[in-house]
Amino acid sequence: EADRPAPAVLETAQPAEPTAQSSSAPSGLPLASAANASPLAQWDDSRPLVSELLEAHAGAIAELASLLRETEPLFDPNLHDGLWLVRFLLSHKMSVNASAKAARQTLQWRAANKMDAIAHTVLSKPLTEWPGYGAVFPHLPIHYMAPMGIDGPLVMLVESSECSVSQLMKEKDIERAYIQYMLHSLEYTYQYTDRATRLSGRLTKLHRVLCLPTLSRRHISLSFFRIAGSREIKQAQNSYPQVLGIMFLLDLPPAMAWTWHHVIQPLLPTRTAEKTEMITLSKEKDRAKMNVVLPEKMMPKRLYGGGGDLLPHPSTLSLNDSGPKVERA
């Protein structure tokens, strides 16, 4: 097609080749009934039931599968099932043609960037061994947690007190290192949320919590935000439909709110900007809004400004683990 851009090929370190089935498809786990989810995940759950999504959109799913079989050699109906397909439909307002175009671009992008091999890396190696970790994490620690168990939402926490974007930008070859690290993080997020979706029977996403009470100039770098909003990052994020949930900005200083709205937000991918909520934890109404998605009684205190320890990275959990014991908020 004339309007189809070539997939961006990212300069990533070459991971070991995968030994399992292609992970351009989901994890391969069967869809579970929501009634079989772990007790920890049985809260006032607002996540959509996958069975209802598949039933409601069965016609569009079948039409999309048929179109991809005819137009995309990388599409494999034995791997790319109804859940994989409905993610594209939901992200493209149920347009079969737009969804087919996005799915083709995703499959081609994954092949060009050897994403199946990267999936193998993030599922078999600790975070500390991911490419780019050494350059990025010391200055921009990104903590992943599964507070509600292995079949609940994935939560990402970033605290401004731990971060220094200005120091990050002094690292050698930081653009390449950052893109490497984020590519692995995005793939891990997809693999985790797909597994959680199949285990719980509910569409599961990543929710991001950015604690920003100490936000200052050392956290602001136009060069960094240009990298974070680059074509490579945007194309990568577009290849994971219905994975990113809400991004909560906690206690953003009033003086920085203008900078966020007028400088930072325009540089971010559109979908990221649209899913952002500014929260002041001292305001009961704001706290209640966050509580709907991340129930305070089930979260570590640290997510609600109460200090305390972080949960371990979700890769430490087994499929049968309901999650580590933690002091709740």
Question: How do you describe this structure in short?
Answer:
The protein is an alpha/beta fold.
Please give the structural blueprint.
Layout: H1 50-56, H2 58-71, H3 82-91, H4 96-112, H5 115-124, H6 133-136, E1 143-145, E2 154-159, H7 165-168, H8 174-200, E3 206-211, H9 222-228, H10 231-238, E4 244-250, H11 254-264, H12 270-274, E5 276-279, H13 284-293
Parallel strand pairs: 2-3, 3-4, 4-5
Antiparallel strand pairs: 1-2
Helix pairs in contact: 2-3, 2-4, 3-4, 5-8, 8-10
InterPro entries: CRAL-TRIO_dom (IPR001251), CRAL-TRIO_dom_sf (IPR036865), CRAL/TRIO_N_dom_sf (IPR036273), PI/PC_transfer (IPR051026)
Domain CRAL-TRIO: 132-311
Organism: Strombidinopsis acuminata
At the first level of CATH, the class of the largest domain is Alpha Beta
Helix/strand/pairing category: alpha/beta
Computed over alpha carbons, the radius of gyration is 19 Å
Into how many domains do the coordinates divide? Answer: 2
Helix content: 40-55%
> What is the string of SSEs from the N terminus onward?
HHHHHHEEHHEHHEHHEH
Question: Taking all residues together, what is the mean pLDDT?
Answer: 80
Count of β-strands: 5
The proportion of strand residues reads: 5-15%
Could you say what the CATH topology of the largest domain is called? Phosphatidylinositol Transfer Protein Sec14p
Main sheet, how many strands, which sense, barrel? 5 strands, mixed
Can you say what the CATH homologous superfamily of the largest domain is? CRAL-TRIO lipid binding domain
